[in-house]
Specification:
Glutaredoxin; transferase; 4-stranded mixed beta sheet; binds glutathione; single chain; 9 helices; Glutathione-S-Trfase_C_sf; 2 domains; Glutathione_S-Trfase; 4 strands; Glutathione S-transferase Yfyf (Class Pi), Chain A, domain 2; Thioredoxin-like_sf
Length: 207
C-alpha cells in the first residue's frame, strides 16, 4: 500500500498512527497537498492529503481510509463495538477534523508552515486569537469529556487518534496545553502522544 502525504499533516498522521497500531506495512510518499504527481492526483480527486493506493484501490480522506483499514486489518479494533462508544468515537473523529483542527493548526501555519516552509510572512495576531479566544472553549469541551485514559470506552480508539494528532503541530509551533487550566487534557495529550504508534507516526518523513 502507498500512503501519500507529508508526515507534517495531522490528517496524514491519523492514518500513520492507525497503520502503526495495526502493524500494516506501507510505502510512504511524503508529498504536499496539490502535488502534481499524476498517481497522487488519481488517488486524491481534490488534491488533499492523505490518499492511498492499495494495489490499485485508490482512496482519499483520512476517515475513509481508516474505516477501510479497519475492515481489512481488524486487530486491534480502533472502532468500538459498543454502540455508545462507537457513537462517541465517530463524534470525536468529526470534532477533531472539523472543529478542533482548523483552530489548532493556526499557530503551526503562522509560525512554521508559512515563514519556514513557504517563505511567506506569518500573522502572530491570528495565533494570539486562536490561543486566547478560539481554542479555550474547545479545550473546555474535551476537558469535560475526559474521565480516563481514552475518550470512547475503555480502549484506545479512532477518537483518541483524531483528537490528539493536531496537538503535535501545536507543539511544533512552541505551544502546549496549559496544565493549570486544563489538567486532564494536558495529561491526556501527553500520554497519547507518548504511545509507540504516535512516536512512529511523528518520525515519518515530512518531505
Ligand atoms: N477531510 C480530509 C481533510 C484533509 C485535508 O484538509 N488535508 C490538508 C492538509 S493537512 C490539505 O490537503 N489541504 C489542502 C486544501 O485544503 O486544499 C481528511 O480527513 O483527509
Amino acid at each position: 500500500m502507498i500512503l501519500y502525504g507529508t508526515g507534517l499533516s495531522p490528517f496524514v498522521r491519523k492514518v500513520l498512527v492507525v497503520l502503526a497500531e495495526k502493524g500494516v506495512p506501507f510505502e510512504h510518499v511524503p508529498l504536499r497537498f496539490h502535488d502534481p504527481d499524476p498517481d497522487f492526483q488519481a488517488a486524491s480527486p481534490v488534491g488533499k492529503i492523505p490518499a492511498i493506493d492499495d494495489d490499485g484501490f485508490r482512496l482519499a480522506d483520512s476517515s475513509a481510509i481508516i474505516h477501510y483499514l479497519e475492515r481489512g486489518h481488524p486487530a486491534p479494533a480502533l472502532l468500538p463495538a459498543d454502540a455508545r462508544d462507537l457513537g462517541r468515537a465517530i463524534w470525536f473523529d468529526e470534532f477533531g477534523d472539523t472543529e478542533l483542527f482548523p483552530v489548532l493548526i493556526k499557530p503551526f501555519v503562522h509560525r512554521v508552515l508559512r515563514p519556514k516552509l513557504m517563505k511567506m510572512p506569518g500573522d502572530e495576531a491570528v495565533v494570539e486569537k486562536a490561543l486566547t479566544r478560539e481554542l479555550p472553549p474547545l479545550f473546555d469541551h474535551i476537558e469535560a469529556q475526559i474521565d480516563g485514559p481514552f475518550l470512547a470506552g475503555d480502549r484506545f480508539s479512532l477518537a483518541d487518534v483524531s483528537v490528539t494528532v493536531g496537538f503535535a503541530n501545536l507543539a511544533m509551533a512552541g505551544e502546549e496545553v496549559d496544565a493549570g487550566r486544563w489538567p486532564r487534557l494536558a495529561a491526556y495529550v501527553a500520554a497519547t502522544l507518548a504511545r509507540p504508534s504516535f512516536r512512529t507516526a511523528l518520525a515519518a518523513r515530512r518531505g
